[in-house]
Design a protein that fits this description.
This protein is mainly α and 209 residues long. Helices cover 78% and strands 0% of the residues. It has one domain (4-207).
Length: 209
């Protein structure tokens, strides 16, 4: 199997982020890659910091003909993870949800997100699901704010599905060219990806002021 992990050397991500990224990508080289993708997608939507995109793209590049299958697995896992985040916020916020928010230092952002749910819950979840903004912040917040559960599910299916299938389409239709491009520029792309994640956090911090 194609070892995309091998071209990650030189990334400027933090030590912890790099270790988690490496650990996530290592699953692409095992027979448990598909279950791992599903579990990472579930976990990221509720507590895990590394997005499933990195594993999805690695698997898609390895087997382009199964790219859409991986996108479906990733989408289902992410939506279910969003539901888990919702129930954490709904009934376990003080024991589980709040420690997660505190761990990522997103207390102010959480308050901001809660206010956005009062304005347009569907749009808030759609934006969060399709962008680098921490999705877990919105799924947990949706539970705390008692957002309609089916609104969360519908918005999650739309946004997360669009995101993951768009990535799969790039891999499927451009195949070898995408592989060559990523091999050549993956260091830059990985840095850009991490920067996008941080911008999502910083954007929320700015808006929460």
């Amino acid at each position: 199997m194609y070892r995309i992990k091998d071209i990650l050397s030189g990334s400027s991500a933090s030590t912890l982020s790099r270790r988690l990224m490496d650990w996530t990508l290592e699953w692409a080289n095992t027979r448990y890659a598909t279950p791992a993708l599903f579990l990472v997608a579930v976990a990221e939507a509720s507590f895990f910091p590394i997005p499933p995109d990195v594993l999805l793209i690695a698997l898609g590049i390895s087997l382009p003909t199964r790219a859409f299958h991986y996108a479906l697995v990733c989408s289902v896992g992410s939506v279910l993870g969003g539901c888990l985040g919702f129930f954490i916020g709904y009934g376990l916020f003080e024991t589980i949800g709040k420690p997660i928010i505190d761990f990522y230092g997103l207390e102010q952002e959480f308050n901001y997100v809660s206010n956005r749910f009062n304005e347009n819950a569907f749009l808030a979840v759609v934006v969060a699901g399709f962008t680098p903004i921490p999705y877990k912040l919105f799924t947990i917040g949706a539970g705390v704010c008692k957002v309609n559960f089916f609104t969360l599910v519908l918005a999650s299916v739309l946004s997360r599905g669009s995101r993951f299938f768009a990535e799969a389409a790039l891999v499927y239709f451009f195949g070898a060219r995408v592989r060559v491009f990523i091999e050549r520029y993956f260091n830059i792309l990985s840095i850009a990806f991490v920067v996008m994640l941080f911008l999502g956090y910083i954007g929320l911090k700015f808006l929460a002021r």
